[in-house]
Amino acid sequence: MDNLARALRRVERNRGAPGPDGMTVEALRPHIKVTWPEIRAALDDGTYRPSPVRRVTIPKPGGGERELGVPNVLDRFLQQALSQVLSPVFEPSFSDRSFGFRPGRSAHQAVEAARRAIEAGETWVVDVDLDRFFDRVSHDALMARVARRVGDRRVLRLIRRYLDAGVMVAGVKVATVEGTPQGSPLSPLLANIMLDDLDAELERRGHTFVRYADDLRVYVASERAATRVIAGVTAFVERRLKLKVNRAKSGVAPATQRGLLGFGFFRTAGRVKVRLDRKAKDRLKARLRLLTSRRRSIAMPVRLALLNRFLGGWSAYFALAETPSVFDGFDEWLRRRLRQVRWKEWKRFAARRRNLRALGIPDWQARQWAASQKGYWRLSGSAPLQRALPNRYWADLGLVPIGDRTRRLREHWRTAGCGPARPVVWEGAV
After folding, report:
1. Are residues 145 and 107 in contact, defined by beta-carbon separation less than 8 angstroms?
2. Phi-psi region of 179 (alpha: psi -120 to 50; beta: other; left: phi over 0)
3. Is the N end or the C end of the chain the one with fewer CB atoms within 10 Å?
């Protein structure tokens, strides 16, 4: 009962959308109170049948779409309870170089492990991309690996039924013969179980590697060794695990040219440091463009609240990057975007002149700039508008700069004598 209570609290805390039956997280606890005797009896005698999941597609940060499966909240609850019991069974045998979806481990730790490998002289990286991993996992191969440590036939039968439950597409149930749906509480653990053999093989060969879920990097000392390793890993994945390596996305490169989980690496003064990956920069700017769009007619306090909410999570994740000047550059660019918005809000000559004067701009200059026909972006970078709407102006309205956020976090980690204390979740990180 203690395990079930923890699972219920976890599902309620994670919230999430309803599955195919439409039941919300808020309705789960009352539903369990009424129906639990029937559910438990079905679980005990092996007749419980999980419902199919609801298929949802979301855009990938790098382009394309990712398919998620949204189970009914009752099945999420039962899967969470299963995961909490199975995790201590499998965790002790998992590799220390596996960081994804494991208690007490985080993306930051994976990036730090990669940084140490590069600094130790492993200057080439083998980037292995598993093609649609969560959609291609063989049910038979996965269940064989689960059965190595789980002897209870009812548990094995229930896990298999979750794998075989199918998906609802346009109101029609579609059978699934392979894959484990992303979005279910049990899938991350099953993914690590499936890939544990790969970790063991890499360790047997003596390789330095970092794996975060299906994101794998192997660090070696030379290009020749990297070419040999990628051929060996590809053969193992496709022959032994019955998965597919995406050859177009996989490859061999100097370690500073291939990032990991939104971060990259660079050498300076004999050290290897962490930086932002180019794609992470592009994704940040795309999101900030959306939040500061002039076409989006929302009040400035609401806009700044949305920005602070997004930047809080983004900064907590990317504060690991040792690039304060890059963060300050983003802040400067963001304030210029906001000056565009403010200039459009003032709309007419009279309002622009009045507001510029109120903000300390001389009347002759306020009149000149209020009458300007130059574009929003050009005006937002002009000296009068920068003087009228300086950094202090946005700070007084409540905007917290990225640079200030990341500096405070890094100072906290330094004075506490530790790195990031817990896994940080950010929607575009992995």
Report:
1. no
2. left
3. N
CA distances from 330 to 155, 401, 430 (A): 50, 9, 21
Q: Lay out the sheet containing 167-169: strands in order across.
A: 65-70, 53-59, 167-169, 172-174
Give the C-alpha separation, 109 to 168, whole Å: 37
Helix (H) or strand (E) holding 264: strand 263-268
Rg of the chain (C-alpha set):
26
Report residue 267 as tokens: 């050498």
Q: How many C-alpha atoms does 380 have within 13 Å on its Cβ side? A: 19
Residue with tokens 């306090």: 301
Q: What are phi and psi of 322, to 5 degrees?
A: -95, 60
Six token digits for residue 377: 């972006």
β-strand pairing of 53-59 with 167-169 = parallel
The residues, ordered by sequence, that sit 6+ positions from 92 with a Cβ below 8 Å of its Cβ are none
303-333 burial code (b ≥16 CB/10 A, e <16): bbeebeebbeebbbbbbbbbbeebbbebbee
223's tokens: 């290009």
172-174 and 167-169 strand pairing: antiparallel
Q: Are 162 and 79 in contact (CB under 8 A)?
A: yes
Pure H helices in 164-207: 187-204
Count H helices and E strands in the chain, helices first: 18, 10
Which residue reads 């690996």 in tokens?
Answer: 145
At 267 the three-state DSSP class reads strand
Q: What are the pLDDT tens digits along the chain (430 aa)? A: 999 999 999 999 998 889 888 999 999 999 999 999 999 999 999 899 999 988 887 777 666 677 788 899 999 999 999 999 999 999 999 999 999 999 999 999 999 999 999 999 999 999 999 988 888 899 999 999 999 999 999 999 999 999 998 887 777 777 787 888 788 899 999 999 999 999 999 999 999 999 999 999 999 999 999 999 999 999 999 999 999 999 999 999 999 999 999 999 999 988 999 999 999 999 999 999 999 998 888 999 999 999 999 999 999 999 999 999 999 999 999 999 999 999 999 989 999 999 999 999 999 999 998 998 889 999 999 988 999 999 999 999 999 999 999 999 989 888 876 555 444 444 443 3
Q: Tell me which residue has tokens 């036939």.
A: 153
Select from 355, 122, 332 the least CA-distant residue to 220: 122
Residue with the two structure tokens 């609290």: 9
